[in-house]
Write a structure and sequence with these properties.
About 50% of the residues lie in helices and about 5% in strands. By secondary structure, it is mostly helical. The chain has one domain (about 10-280). Helix 4 (about 75-90) crosses helix 6 (about 130-145) and helix 6 packs across helix 10.
Length: about 280
Amino acid sequence: MRQHSFRVAATLTTIVLLAVPAIAQQRNSDIENIGNRDINRGESRPTTPNLEDEIALGRNVARELEQGVTLLNDPAVVDYVNRVGQVIVRNSDSKLPFTIKVIDSAEVNAIGLPGGFLYVTTGLIQTADNEAQLAAMMAHAVAHVAARHAAEQQGKTTFINILSVPSTVFPGREAASPQRSSPPVPAMFFSFNRAAEEEADWLGLQYAYKAGYDPTAMTAFFQKMATQSRGVPVSTLFATHPQTEDRIAKSIENIRTYLPSRQQNVVTTMEFQEIKSRLMERRPQ
């Protein structure tokens, strides 16, 4: 069984929640226009490759990732996660179709790759208390893809080089330690700068809300992960992330300021509970 460890710290890279920089608030606070707005416009946005190159890159990275993990082969779970994810995608700013798969790993993670490739671990499903929390984590990962953060961070030249010479970017797995603490793909897809992480927090909050989910589920999950992660060293790879306390405070403020209250939000479903129980039953006795 091939499977690389994803440390809890990695969770705080790809699914960290809800800090909202002033620029993101000013540019993308029109919730009702999600799907019609262009979040990648503006003089401050870096040059990015065209979408075709970005999709090709994402396909290459996804292929490499799948060679180093074990994908879950349970149609009921995979179909459920895909349906939840596609609802988020339809209520996002992404212009791309998404391919969504489940990684059989106890680590808690959601990974969004360029070009519309999304991976959710079974550990995330089992750790989430309800469907809204699961959707929130997936929404953050979708936001990274929609905002094209990997493309912006690396720039067009680097992207072309990666597409042309993938072997120089993806070292052979035989050289990797069995105890490696990061996925078998370049760190560029998991280590975004602080501004990108904050934007993904803000956009992810909007996407989950627009999809009908309770927005407070995001802060609840973030608080839960912060509690479980106490005492766990955090790699310098994630040093650009805002402090947990700040993100929680900002998320509460943003929910109050930007998200209109409504009488009913989706918190959980019977299907989520059934899927979670199904995964729990797979645990070795």
